[in-house]
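Bench notes, afternoon.
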Amino acid sequence: MTTPAFDGTLTRDWMRRFADSVYATEAELTALDQRVGDGDFGTNLSAGVTAAGRLLDAAGDGTGPSETLGCMATAFLDEIGGTSGPLFGLLFQALSRAAQGNGLTTDGLAEGVDQGLAAIRRVGDASPGDKTLVDALTPAAAALRGASRGTPPDRALGLAADAAWQGVHDTAGLSARMGRASYLGERVTGIPDPGAVGVALLFASAAGPVRALAPHLPGGG
């Protein structure tokens, strides 16, 4: 039995939907980051997907999943400032390396997210519970590892999205131990981490663009 995989077209469509999600929620991401950070997360994430879109357009429609994810990595690592931009770049870089040939399988997704998480923790020195994007990426990685063999990538990414959104909710109850938010003390309690939200957006976009954050955040409806 052939293991299901994302080809270049499906991977590119996923990244395009991620960009659509970022554009649709940029104002909400900015407002959220203004409460706990420097207020530039939405702008930086939008700039990242815009830069990646230019690279994808230049690469053309015949690219495989590894090259597509490599374009995302290059954009976020080389062109985007702030704290989170390079961290997302490391995740895309690890996913690009894990894509095998012309296919991105669930096993490849699990390997890439695991490697990306390890790189992010190494560079950012963040651990689960610090109220960072690690708190969404860690459960997403566990969900991908736990997916049964042969699970289609779209289904596995749905499981990762559910786990990441739960991680987002969990960050609302945490006291920040990293970044600007760590200086705000109890004032950030009850507010989810913007970077964690960005991670959830990435996985959720595999199923379709996210048009609004409010329904996915604590207290939303």
